[in-house]
Amino acid sequence: MSAYDRLTARFARIGALGEAAGMLHWDASAMMPPGGGAARGEQLAALAGLRHDLLVSPEVSLDLGEATAPGAWEDANLALMRHAHLRATALPTALVEAVERANSACEKVWRNAKASADFAMVRPHLAEVVRLQREVAQGLGEALRMAPYDALMDGYQRGVTAADVEPVFDAYESWLAEALPRAEAIQARRGAALPLPGPFPVAAQRDLCRAMAQVVGLDFNHARLDESLHPFCGGTPTDVRITTFYDEANVAKALLGVLHETGHAMYERGLPEAFARQPVGEAAGMAAHESQSLIVEMQACRSDAFLDFLGTRLQASFGGDPAPYAAANLGKLWRRVERGFIRVDADEMTYPAHVILRFRLERAMIEGRLEVAELPEAWNAGLQKSLGITPPNDALGCLQDIHWHDGAFGYFPSYTLGAMAAAQLMAALRRAEPELDAQLARGEMARMMGWLRGHVHSQGARLGLQDLLRAATGKPLDPADFTAHLTARYLTD
Amino acid sequence: MSAYDRLTARFARIGALGEAAGMLHWDASAMMPPGGGAARGEQLAALAGLRHDLLVSPEVSLDLGEATAPGAWEDANLALMRHAHLRATALPTALVEAVERANSACEKVWRNAKASADFAMVRPHLAEVVRLQREVAQGLGEALRMAPYDALMDGYQRGVTAADVEPVFDAYESWLAEALPRAEAIQARRGAALPLPGPFPVAAQRDLCRAMAQVVGLDFNHARLDESLHPFCGGTPTDVRITTFYDEANVAKALLGVLHETGHAMYERGLPEAFARQPVGEAAGMAAHESQSLIVEMQACRSDAFLDFLGTRLQASFGGDPAPYAAANLGKLWRRVERGFIRVDADEMTYPAHVILRFRLERAMIEGRLEVAELPEAWNAGLQKSLGITPPNDALGCLQDIHWHDGAFGYFPSYTLGAMAAAQLMAALRRAEPELDAQLARGEMARMMGWLRGHVHSQGARLGLQDLLRAATGKPLDPADFTAHLTARYLTD
């Protein structure tokens, strides 16, 4: 057995344990009775511990030193193994354990702090989390030869740095300052939307969501659609589990949510089977993943063409007056621009402002240019500058997201990198498929999904984000396609 | 850290991996889309492989040599760890792999052989399985200082030997020869049962099954009831997963099946929490487990008293003429004695005859007194002797069960040991609870389940079967309580 073969056997085991953990996470959210939580924690901890043990073993180090790859894919696989081993061994166990303790303590206090809009309550805990994340970033950065903040970003999305992101985000911010008031004025001129009648019985919503996931291309021989409080896409590439949450008063929540999760699911389904449970067979990262949910939900399914198709299906499912289901009205309802305090409720035009704010603040915290005590003020000033609004309290400001309070630094950019990558991929796809809108208007997505499978899904983790975009679209990350998309959708009367 | 503490930490990990595998098995039967099968196989194989690696490690051997237990439970735990390590290390890897290959190959061929009632098709495969099981039994027997067949039985139920079982089975067979014709005559005199009207809509069956599981005492904060082709009880002690299969034409199938699985579930729920994920915190074995499903389903829930309660609930659920739901009529329907070819369809009186036949044949095969080629003839002669019927073909004879064709030898006795243990426990329980029938007639099972929790569930795997029965009932396995139960139910006019 060659060193490379020993490594693939070991990583197949690590991958299988990861798949098992993925299934147990899904079960915990969608199926598990409340009393199963403690035991589930033990099961997941055992799986995580064994994966770590398998990854950091000295044998891996020896085999990595010796292994040669028989081809380009195998070479990329080997590089990813080396990368994973480096990340897993870069930090002393004492630091990793301190991080876990601090994150867990902070996250618990944060829930109460957010509920009572009291930043002071969580401040010392968050300060400890940040102090440790600085150490983590330093340690990972040295091992990976990256800047500290880049090493944290790398944990969520390989192949893109803060230096890549910064000019892109700056350009977007400048564009938005000018575009947002114009979009608001146009929106005001267009007038109010007709509300959808409702109520929308859960059984009919479930059938419609399932049918729309199939329209996107999801094969339920390899997928399930269930319910959970927080919708997500989990499971494994041959057995994808998406969830949603039905609200009888609001059909958009589940329907657009399922289309979003189906985009994620299609990515998993299209990953290269020949490298299942190998590092190179995984998705390319969080931004890449978000690009696939957003190209389906935001680019394709909220387009005029698809809304035309979707309105007919909605009317068929729920009956009543057809007028509110006209594409133009659905567009007014589901493509509404609004300056708000809450990121997760934001529209696609203002969403990046929320992300850019967080990117700057978290980077400053990791690089020691911002202290946790200064966070609320910096947050409020930043939001005032970009959206012209100031949160009335920290629950609507710097306490709103779990991420930092659970130790996740470097994740936020992925959302907007995903949105921009989605627009960039869509522009390339439209060049290859000039008839795309006609297809979408008929609910035909096979050619679109085929293009994505070829250019993104089937590439696995072979390429980092910038290289993936270069190969698929001919250029690295470029906000121009995203602003062009927004211009067409929101700035054209 | 003491050697004992190192061992408990390791076995906790092994236990957590076992729980994870249990959940994934449940998911595979109740939830998984068909396309997930191959990946699930990889996940389960990885978990099994890691559990084995953790169990056979030389460190376990060293710690077992050094460890001392701080109390009686810990001492039993240590003995079970030693036992598990011995079983896992007794056989050479080459033999274990040969067994897996042979079982898997034979099981596949058996499906076709059974479908075409062609024993010759599977004969060479089964001969190879038996040849290897003889080696396994030999190897395990030497390591455990047991007779070869006993070492196989030990894999399913500790603490009972073929020498214990043989006189019990012989006595039952003699009793049955005389009792069966009498039971048939009495049954004939009682006349035919009124059929239950039906159909029984699935939603109403589901509600009733859930309610009846709660009557037995199942807490759905720690349990789920779902559907699968082959009903079973899986999951973990704080998160039990039972399944059933609804047939709108036949309510008994799901209802009595759920009561059976709930008996298993209550055993899991009552296992000692202080030893969760430790060997001594597990159930005492397959016969002990079957005793708990059968004491609920057969002893309690098919009693006249409980059928009275159940009939009222059935009528409330499904309406129509109340006459078929009278306890006496339900008794005629659900306690019908009948000589048949198929074990899984057998009533409680003839079921042991099927098991005794298999016990004798499999023991003879393992001990080299019977060759596979002679099996069909020996089977047919045995069934003719005990039940007076001869299978018209091998699909209704020696091809009916998967067990041997999948390498499971020593399992069959557990079914009847469980039925007898259930009767023996019920007799002791009735001495402690003279008002039991009045409680059952009101659908009250709390005192019954409390007694079982104290005498069986909370004992975990501390005792082998014979010792468990001695502690709970004052005597080792004794078929007299079982035949007394059958006499009262089937031989009393």
From TrEMBL, chains A, B:
It comes from the Bacteria. One of its GO terms (molecular function) is carboxypeptidase activity. Its EC number is 3.4.17.19. Pfam families: Peptidase_M32. This is Metal-dependent carboxypeptidase. InterPro entries: Peptidase_M32_Taq. PROSITE patterns: PEPTIDASE_M32. Belongs to the peptidase M32 family. It catalyses: Release of a C-terminal amino acid with broad specificity, except for -Pro. Keywords: Carboxypeptidase, Hydrolase, Metal-binding, Metalloprotease, Protease. The keyword Repeat does not apply. Broad specificity carboxypetidase that releases amino acids sequentially from the C-terminus, including neutral, aromatic, polar and basic residues. The keyword Oxidoreductase does not apply.
